[in-house]
């Protein structure tokens, strides 16, 4: 696939432009309603599908199918990521009006980290043919492990990243609006919102370790790998607010995701020296696995409505009072004339 440098810059410009629009649209802290989340979800999915249609038209059916296979894998794995975010936000009792800010910077960090992972993966695949076997074995092992641990969930309190953060970073015990950092009594301190952001970033890196090898199983084109990841990730914030209260209904989704990882692991293992499974077949299998797990889940939980996760009886953090907010000092200290001289 011949991709010019200007096309890379054009795609990056499009992504940055969409992030800027999203940040401007949500510049004021407010609770994202289901209707608003649904509208934004439609926007992001439309953009992702439209880009895939352009790839199909400009570069042919094979590359178009590779993009859609990768996009579907990333979008499906992202749903599991959304459920982990719901667990984190519930455990830390993050006010709903502040959650979008965390997710915005979380997605921005995810794009950067995944770009690095994709670049590294592309170099490894181009330099070492045997890396396909390693990726395939990893995907098979991850899929089997996911099936075995399908009923297990993240426990934020046991997170090593959170423990390290608390040990080395001074932190207040209260949310101070949408601030990640505050200065109090001359001391620069992190708020719990920054700790939540760190945990969100760490969990996304863990998910990326699974998803990046999975998408390399359906395409070796770095441009398609990156764009499928990017357009799938951009809609995660809206997807979270749309699906966070429906976690209990997707009872078979994790099994479907695990089977997808096993399938792409088998595909990657075979394509090296044995047989290349056509992209059309891979796209069909992935669609059936994900779509089937969603349909079966919704049928098994028919009649159940939206239900938020149960928050802890004693949340680890609180919301700062108006008096505490009034006592905050500017983050940047002004240098006194004596210091300047």
TrEMBL record:
Subcellular location: Membrane
Residues spanning the membrane: 6-25, 37-57, 77-95, 102-124, 130-147, 193-217, 223-243, 250-270, 276-298
InterPro entries, sorted: Integral_membrane_TerC (IPR005496), Integral_membrane_TerC_rswitch (IPR022369)
Family statement: Belongs to the TerC family.
Protein name per its UniProtKB record: Tellurite resistance protein TerC
Topology within the bilayer: Multi-pass membrane protein
Organism: Blastococcus aggregatus
Gene Ontology cellular component list: membrane
Stored PANTHER family: MEMBRANE BOUND PREDICTED REDOX MODULATOR, THYLAKOID MEMBRANE PROTEIN TERC, CHLOROPLASTIC
């Amino acid at each position: 696939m011949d991709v010019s440098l200007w096309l890379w810059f054009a795609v990056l410009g499009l992504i940055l432009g969409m992030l800027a629009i999203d940040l401007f649209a949500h510049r004021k802290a407010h609770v994202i309603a289901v209707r608003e989340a649904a509208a934004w979800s439609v926007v992001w999915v439309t953009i992702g599908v439209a880009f895939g249609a352009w790839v199909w038209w400009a570069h042919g059916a094979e590359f178009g199918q590779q993009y859609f296979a990768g996009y579907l894998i990333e979008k499906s794995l992202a749903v599991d990521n959304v459920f982990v975010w719901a667990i984190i936000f519930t455990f830390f009792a993050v006010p709903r009006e502040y959650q979008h800010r965390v997710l915005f910077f979380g997605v921005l960090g995810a794009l950067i980290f995944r770009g690095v992972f994709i670049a590294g993966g592309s170099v490894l695949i181009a330099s070492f043919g045997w890396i396909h076997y390693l990726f395939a074995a990893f995907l098979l092992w991850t899929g089997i492990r996911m099936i075995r641990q399908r009923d297990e969930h993240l426990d934020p309190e046991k997170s090593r990243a959170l423990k390290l953060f608390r040990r080395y970073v001074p932190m207040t015990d209260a949310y101070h609006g949408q601030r990640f950092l505050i200065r109090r009594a001359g001391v620069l301190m992190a708020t719990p919102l920054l700790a939540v952001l760190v945990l969100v970033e760490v969990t996304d890196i863990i998910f990326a370790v699974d998803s990046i090898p999975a998408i390399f199983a359906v395409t070796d084109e770095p441009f398609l790998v990156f764009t499928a990841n990017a357009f799938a990730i951009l809609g995660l914030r809206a997807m979270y607010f749309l699906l966070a209260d429906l976690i209990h209904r997707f009872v078979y989704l994790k099994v479907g995701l695990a089977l997808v990882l096993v399938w792409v692991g088998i595909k990657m293992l075979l394509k090296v020296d044995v047989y290349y499974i056509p992209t059309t077949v891979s796209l069909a299998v992935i669609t059936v696995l994900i779509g089937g797990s969603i349909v079966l889940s919704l049928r098994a939980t028919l009649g159940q409505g939206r239900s938020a996760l149960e928050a802890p009886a004693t949340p680890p953090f609180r919301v700062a009072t108006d008096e505490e907010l009034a006592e905050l000092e500017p983050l940047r200290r002004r240098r006194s004339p004596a210091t300047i001289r």
